[in-house]
Here is the input.
Amino acid sequence: MKKIFVQIGITLSLFFAAAAPAFAVAGAKTSMSPDPVCMQSAIEKRDSGIIAAVENYAVSVKLGLTSRKDGLKAAWNQMDKKQRSSAIKLAWSAFSGTWKKANAALQASRKSAWSQYERDRKACGSKQTEDGDKPMSTSGL
Here is the structure.
């Protein structure tokens, strides 16, 4: 008699152990599936914003480099060593300011584009782990 109860107990244990995952899946909540068109729009908006920021950065740096080049060339037209040195410092200082402003504007635009993307992505019903997108450093944009 004990042997029959033990066998029934083992059989029931195995049955419930095997059936437990099926019951868990059946009762689980299904998550919202991301809208592909919405995600494509969010990506388009993000990357277009980053592209525009990089284009603005390139224009700013190019203007700064051109200004530096012209300023340094003009400085070397100065015969007086003191005036030449002052003009060289001024050209480099102006370029440094332009460079820093361009970098700051690029960073701000990049952050803004990624922040907007995060809001759009969530509105589309996508999880970050689903699309693999995550903000990168400036080198990766």
